[in-house]
Structures are given as C-alpha cells and as structure tokens.
Amino acid sequence: MKNKSDPIFEMGTVLFMPTLNPNSLKIGYVIIINTRKFAITKLQHKAGYGESSKWTHVAGSLGGLTAIEANIPRSRLINLQKEYVDRGYEIKVMRRKNQEAGKRYKVALWWATMNNLPYDVLQFFWFPLSIFCGKIGIVLHNLFSSHKRFLCSELIVTGFYKEGDYLFGKPAENVLPADFDNSGLFEEVKDIWIFGR
Predict the structure, then answer these.
(1) How far is 47 from 106, CA to CA, in rounded Å?
(2) pTM above 0.85?
(3) CA distance 7 to 31
(4) Which backbone phi and psi does 123 adopt, to 5 degrees?
(5) DSSP 8-class letter at 151
C-alpha cells in the first residue's frame, strides 16, 4: 500500500508531484530510481529480482538535495529534485540498517572523491552477457571490468565495501540497482516530501 505522502505514479506518469525535503536526505543514504530503462528492468527481472527490477539506477546522497551518481560519460553531482523528481522519475530513499553515523559519513566521503570519474562503458555492455551466458559471461564481464571506472551500482556499493561492509557478499561489479531494494539490509526513509509548493 502506498504511503499517502508519496507521490502518486500511474503507468510511469506522476499525477501529483511533491518537493523533496532536503532535511530528510542525510549524507550516506542511498537513492534508487526508476529511470524507466526497459532493457535494465528486463535484465534484472530475468536475473530474479521480481518487482525490485523497476529500480534501474542508484545514487548516493551527499546531504540535502545533492547526490552523486555514475553516469555517462562521467560520475557527477546532481540535484535530486531537478534531475529526477521534477522530471517525473520515481525514487526511493534507503538507509543502511544498523549503520553508525560515522561510517555513513565515511561511505559518502568516499563517494564524493569519485566525482568526475569516467563511466565504465565496456562493463555496461558486457553485463547483460554475464546474465544470459552463465559462468563464461561472468568471466568475460569481470575481465572487462575496470577498477578505475564504475557503473552506478558499483560506485555506490564500493563505498560500503571500502568501510568493510560487504553487504551483498558478491563483487562490486556484479551488484545491480535492484540489489539495494532489500528490506533485510536497508530501511526505506518515507518522510522525504514537502507538499504545497
């Protein structure tokens, strides 16, 4: 059931659009986004993510409306309101369960140092093969993975891994946006909207 304070989405269209409350978006929170990229949704669904497959992009909050994301051609700082909410994309804000505030800050600090890093385009194109071709595809995917370039989910999860929080138990390059829609590891931050703008 939808929270009455959530924006109302119908068939990818926002019928009522609130404003994000910057005071609710803390440094180190994870933002998952439904960018309506059919190929990524299908890939994640094929991999067994079910309804979580709709989350096709992930960013890391640096506090307030500012977040960092890996995107083509480079990772960048964005304003969540302008980049996603105002353009009608559905977002969900996640907080790592049982994480100390100090670690949350360290994770976000690492994300911030990755600003302006080139996007791992080769890995982006090899990843679907790793899903559809089994073990040989995974070997090829990992072979083409760069440790100096990141996909969106890889950038965000590496911040956690750098702090010793191996939350998914798999290599960072194999983490997908849908992995973050995990109620065992994260809790959704619901009070993120201001109404009546």
Answers:
(1) 31
(2) no
(3) 15
(4) -65, -40
(5) -
Here the CATH number for the domain that contains residue 142 is: 3.90.1720.10
Running DSSP on this structure, what letter comes out for residue 118?
B
Q: Do 114 and 155 touch, CB atoms closer than 8 A?
A: yes
pLDDT computed for residue 81 by the predictor: 97
In a domain, 102, yes or no: yes
With beta carbons less than 8 A apart as the criterion, state whether 161 and 179 touch. Answer: no
Residue 132: other Cβ atoms inside 10 A: 10
Residue 109 covered by a domain: yes
In a domain, 197, yes or no: no
Series of mean pLDDT values for 10-residue runs along the chain (197 residues): 52 67 97 94 91 97 97 92 96 97 96 80 50 50 53 94 96 93 98 80
Instruction: Look at the alpha carbons of 19, 107, 141, 185 in this order and tell me if their dihedral is positive or negative.
Output: negative
Q: Please list the residues that pair with 34 across neighbouring strands.
A: 90
Q: Could you list the residue range(s) of the whole structural domain that residue 154 is in?
A: 20-189
Q: Are 84 and 92 in contact (CB under 8 A)?
A: no
β-pair partners for 74? 118
**Is 194 part of a structural domain of the chain?**
no
Return the closest-CA partner of residue 66 out of 106, 101, 114, 31: 31
Contact yes or no for 119/155 (Cβ under 8 A): no
Domain count for the chain: 1
